UniProtKB/TrEMBL annotation:
Homodimer. Interacts with RRAS. Interacts (phosphorylated form) with VAPA. Interacts with OSBPL6. It comes from Cyprinus carpio. This is Oxysterol-binding protein. Residues 1-16 have a biased composition (Low complexity). It holds the Pfam family PH_8. GO terms for biological process: bile acid biosynthetic process. SUPFAM superfamilies: Oxysterol-binding protein-like, PH domain-like. PROSITE patterns: OSBP (PS01013), PH_DOMAIN (PS50003). GO terms for cellular component: cytosol; endoplasmic reticulum membrane; filopodium tip; nuclear membrane; perinuclear endoplasmic reticulum; plasma membrane. The keyword Cytoplasm applies. Belongs to the OSBP family. It comes from the Eukaryota. It is found in: Cell membrane; Cell projection, Filopodium tip; Cytoplasm, Cytosol; Endoplasmic reticulum membrane.
Length: 699
């Protein structure tokens, strides 16, 4: 009898738990479905809401919002909205809307910015959500009727005018006065439908036009690539008769501002860790200026040449090939048939590292190899190790920190494979003077640890990522510290990486940007510090990917200034006499067809006969799904990916059932809870060799 009584209680408890879980998670608000609808014009809504403050400031501030016909305007108070002194304006119909009921939060992803709103009262929260839903549908229906009028400002309001803000009573009274869409609008739609005798033919013609536009866009981008020189920003060549190559660099007036001023220009948005957001300030009236920058790298303070020559750093253990490939076996697959929306629509605001993705969305490298890509310009560390002045050493260290982002410029279209627990990767590069090893040391949360060494420096880091999908964009927030030690000087540099964001996840041309601040410190000396700011792109300014920094002494006095673009090059000094410290290497031919890989990236997954016998069976290059994707065998790659992921789940279940935890083989936890090398990899590789050791079977 007691069981019958407790059963409903347990059911109610379970149901309540599921309800609370739904309340506590992000819910995406659906938009207009099907064709055109007869949606009643919504009543206006006005009132105060909390809005997340601009990075780097924390917390929320109260702002007055006014919603009319799908356009949400806001300012400090109602009077400012009435006067047209707006802080921002959001087209709700063109935004992705998500809500979290328990926290009473509303997110509007308008691509340029992500607006985080919060309401304290449950009643007001429900009212705003209801009104926003109605206005969003109305606006989307209006856009469907008049696509040529798709603009931030409502067609019925000229951009220069500001509507009068009604009081709360008048807003309520308007509900009885609102009528359906005007007869004139309906007549236009009806006439247009009647005149379209063959809608199928029209659809096919539109599809052909779209394909031709995409092809034209590809040709234009190809032409742009042909005319681009992969060196300093906007380099112009003079006539070949004089043989010189002066550099011309476009620097906006915002770029000349101090680092503190640059931080105030960040956009408003993201709510995770190091997230910056889009600026709402008005654009400067000052135009960008062009200044000449000297290409002379024999400046007294930088007597070492800074071209792509390599210092004689000697070799490491044998087994590395001399000739490396310059092309992948197969081009990247076509992913146009994959609906990312179907995959991501239920994961707004969630960590995407736990979301299964089709193998076509991957690139044939994994995270352990992507970390190795940060060493593509390791010659900067060699230069630092041979520079006596501590401030000049910091210039090279800071430039090295920036150079690690260069390879991501053309890589917004794919994601790296997630390493399975215990997976390893080595990169032995006598030509670059370093050897590198990495291991996946944790699965939940995913943590990748790596260590590289040469006779000039030691480099290591353990990195955890938090990926957040915000509707139209995805943020990648790294957690963990990067370390570089120069034994010759006793320097130990440390810094934390900036936030990365991939835009146009669901449609359009995807592009990646990095924003935030890197603070570099030498933990063994307080003589100098460095702050490098990755400037957030501004929607009113075509200048992108800009970086600027300052190296200061212990009193805060600026000793050196840095500026440039993270995908092109960095300079030290002030225009027009600045010195070029680093430039990116030229991209390989047809790189767009091969995942946007640099030459260095193309070499990372190469498996030559000399190296293969020396690798442990856990090395990434022996992983089947990644190798099959590289060879263009998509179907088999997907099958192997699912099989390898299932094997990992089974290994985890066995560990849990036996109350055991995974122990990484080549890394160990330090006192500060970070993962560092135990310095056994290369010794075991040499004697007795991995073929003579027991290694886990990962695939």
């Amino acid at each position: 009898m007691s069981q019958k009584i407790s059963s409903p209680s347990h059911s109610n408890s379970s149901s309540s738990s599921k309800h609370d879980s739904r309340q506590d998670s992000w819910e995406i608000v659906e938009g207009l479905r099907g064709g055109l609808s007869n949606i009643q014009e919504p009543e206006k809504q006005a009132g105060y809401m909390l809005k997340k403050r601009k990075w780097p400031m924390k917390g929320w501030h109260k702002r007055f919002f006014y919603l009319d016909k799908g356009i949400l305007k806001y300012a400090k108070c109602a009077a400012d909205v009435e006067k047209g002194k707006l802080h921002g304006c959001i087209d709700v119909g063109l935004s992705v809307m998500a809500i979290k009921k328990k926290a009473k939060c509303i997110d509007l992803d308008a691509e340029e910015n992500i607006y985080h709103l919060k309401i304290k009262s449950q009643e007001l929260f429900d009212e705003w959500v209801s009104k926003l839903r109605h206005h969003r549908l109305y606006r989307q229906n209006e856009i469907a009727m008049f696509p040529h009028e798709k603009t931030l400002f409502h067609p019925h309001y000229p951009p220069t005018s500001s509507p009068t803000i009604p009081d709360s009573q008048s807003i309520r009274k308007q509900s009885s006065l609102h009528s359906p869409v005007s007869f004139t609008s309906q007549a236009k739609v009806t006439a247009w439908l009647q005149s379209s005798d063959d809608m199928d033919r029209c659809t096919k013609e539109l599809s052909v036009c779209e394909a031709q536009l995409l092809e034209l866009n590809h040709l234009l981008r190809s032409m742009e690539v042909l005319h681009r020189t992969c060196s300093a920003p906007a380099i112009n060549k003079q006539d070949s008769s004089d043989g010189s190559r002066p550099l011309v660099h476009q620097v906006s007036n915002e770029s000349r501002a101090s680092i503190t001023e640059s931080l105030s220009e960040f956009f408003d948005a993201q709510e995770v860790l190091l997230s910056a957001s889009s600026s709402e300030n008005e654009p400067s009236d000052d135009d960008s200026y062009i200044s000449d920058i000297s290409d002379n790298v024999s400046m007294e303070n930088f007597s070492n040449e800074v071209e792509n020559e390599r210092l004689d750093t000697g070799g490491t253990n044998g087994g590395s090939q001399e000739q490396r490939r310059s092309c992948l076996p197969s081009p990247s697959p076509n992913t146009s048939n994959i609906s990312l929306w179907n995959i991501l629509k239920n994961n707004i605001g969630k960590d995407l590292s736990k979301v299964a993705m089709p193998v076509q969305l991957n690139e044939p490298l994994n995270t352990l190899q992507r970390l190795c890509e940060e060493l593509e310009y390791s010659e900067l560390l060699d230069k630092a190790a041979h520079t006596q002045d501590p401030f000049e050493r910091m210039v090279y260290i800071a430039t090295f920190a920036v150079s690690g982002y260069a390879s991501s410029h053309y890589r917004a279209g794919g994601k790296p494979f997630n390493p399975v627990l215990g997976e390893t990767y080595e990169c032995d590069r006598p030509d670059k003077g370093f050897r590198y090893v990495a291991e996946q040391v944790s699965h939940h949360p995913p943590i990748s640890a790596c260590h590289a060494e040469s006779k000039n420096y030691i480099f290591w880091q353990d990195v955890r990522w938090r990926n957040k999908f915000w509707g139209k964009s995805m943020e990648i927030v790294p957690v963990g510290t990067t370390h570089v030690v120069l034994p010759g000087f006793g320097d130990h540099y440390e810094w934390i990486k900036v936030t990365s964001c991939i835009h146009n996840i669901l449609s359009g041309q995807r592009w990646i940007e990095h924003y935030g601040e890197i603070s570099i410190k030498n933990s063994n000396s307080e003589k100098c510090q460095c702050k490098v700011t990755f400037i957030k792109a501004k929607y009113w300014n075509s200048s992108m990917n800009e970086v600027e920094g300052a190296i200061t002494d212990h009193k805060g006095k600026v000793v050196h200034k840095l500026f440039g673009k993270w995908h092109e090059g960095m300079y030290c000094g002030s225009p027009p006499s600045a010195t070029c410290i680093w430039r990116t290497n030229p991209m390989p031919p047809d790189y767009e067809q091969y995942y946007g890989f640099t030459k260095f990236a193309m070499e990372l997954n190469e498996l030559d006969p000399l190296t293969k016998p020396l690798l442990p069976p856990t090395d990434t290059r022996l992983r089947f799904d990644q190798r099959l994707l590289e060879e263009g065998n998509i179907e088999s790659a997907e099958m192997q990916k699912q099989r390898i992921e299932q094997l990992q789940r089974e290994r985890r279940r066995v560990l849990e059932e036996n109350h055991m935890t995974h122990q990484p083989r080549f890394f160990q936890k330090s006192k500060d809870d970070t993962w560092v090398s135990n310095n056994t990899y290369w010794e075991l590789r040499k004697d007795p060799g991995f073929s003579n050791l027991d290694c886990p079977v990962l695939w």
